[in-house]
Specification:
The complex is a heterodimer of chains A (about 80) and B (about 220). In chain A, about 35% of the residues lie in helices and about 30% in strands. With about 80 residues, chain A is of the alpha+beta class. Chain A has a single domain, classed as Phosphoribosylformylglycinamidine synthase subunit PurS (Mth169, Chain: A, 2-Layer Sandwich), CATH 3.30.1280.10. Chain B has a 9-stranded mixed sheet with strand order 2-1-3-4-11-10-9-6-7, sandwiched between helices. A two-stranded antiparallel sheet of chain B has the order 5-8. The chains are: A alpha+beta (about 80), B alpha/beta (about 220). At the A-B interface, helix 1 and helix 2 of A face loops of B.
């Protein structure tokens, strides 16, 4: 069966995020006062598997080996049955 | 002495490094990323550039190529490995040196000459400098801000190789611009010694990085 996988990658709490800081300053230029701006990367793909749990384990391994850098990143995985 | 220069799609300082290694008296040779066996080489340099377009993170995709397994074998055999700029980012992604080189504090690409302090002379690449010597080499990167979870360990193990002296252009932790592994054989530096290898370039302060390989 096919699953849709979505990996959300964000910087760990307390890590400086220059992109988010720049966006927040730009919003201020338009007179929008916002706080705690963050950016998140989303990587999506579909993947064949027999069981949702096994697929999640495999995607977790992908995060550890390539998709994220554990020194600076937190990540969140969502697995759902593929929408046809 | 044969020194390998690793090439990835997007490497762009490979020929500069080749020239500097020749000036230092070595026999450089290019190595394509798919080569697994590096036993012919006595030292390895990973040059700067934008391997794989910096996709995902700078150095992340180069870090999983077959040549990295060859480099890991070289490290086990006690051969010196130097990563410059993108090469440094790759070594950090592989985990051969601690920490990470990430987006500059000001979110800009910074290309300028910098004053640097040589923090240790125990690595083959810095053996010809004196500890605390001030040298001049350029930087050229958007992702060079050094971060580590355990700064104290780095200090205790004498793993800081270079730091910015007068100003800290990219916001690096403790102004760190170069680190090494525990043994001091794997060095990852953001500044470009090859761009400071002849006086006509503005400085030849960087040449000793390559001469040090021969001496080692």
């Amino acid at each position: 069966m096919k699953y849709d996988a979505e990996v959300k990658i964000s910087l760990k709490k307390g890590m400086l995020n220059p992109e988010a800081a720049t966006i927040q300053r730009a919003l201020a230029l338009l007179d929008y006062q916002v706080e705690n701006t963050a950016t998140v990367d989303i990587i999506k793909f579909s993947i064949e598997g027999t069981d949702k749990g096994i697929v999640k384990e495999e995607v977790d391994e992908m995060c550890q080996r390539l998709l994220c850098n554990p020194v600076i990143h937190d990540y969140n995985i969502t697995i759902s049955p593929k929408e046809e | 002495m044969k020194v390998g220069i690793i090439r990835f799609p997007g490497s762009n300082c490979d020929r500069d490094v080749f020239h500097a290694l020749e000036l230092a008296g070595t026999e450089p040779e290019y190595i394509w990323w798919s080569k697994r066996d590096l036993s012919d080489f006595e030292a390895i340099v990973i040059p700067g550039g934008f391997s794989y377009g910096d996709y995902l993170r700078a150095g992340a995709i180069a870090a999983i190529t077959p040549v990295i397994n060859g480099i890991t074998d070289c490290v086990k055999e006690g051969k010196p490995v130097l990563g410059i700029c993108n090469g440094a980012q790759i070594l950090a992604e592989v985990g051969l040196v601690p920490g990470v080189f990430t987006e500059n504090q000001n979110a800009k690409f910074i290309c300028e000459w910098t004053e640097l302090k040589v923090e240790t002379s125990r690595t083959p690449f810095t053996a010809m400098y004196k500890k605390n010597e001030i040298i001049k080499m350029p930087i050229a990167h958007a992702e060079g801000r050094y971060f580590t979870e355990d700064l104290k360990k780095l200090q205790d193990n004498d793993q800081i190789v270079l730091s910015f002296e007068s100003e800290n252009p990219n916001g690096s932790m403790q102004s760190i611009s170069g680190v090494c592994d525990k043994e001091g054989l794997v060095c990852a530096v953001m500044p470009h010694p090859e761009r400071a290898s002849e006086t006509i370039l503005g400085s030849d302060d960087g040449l000793k990085f390559f001469k040090g390989i021969v001496k080692y």
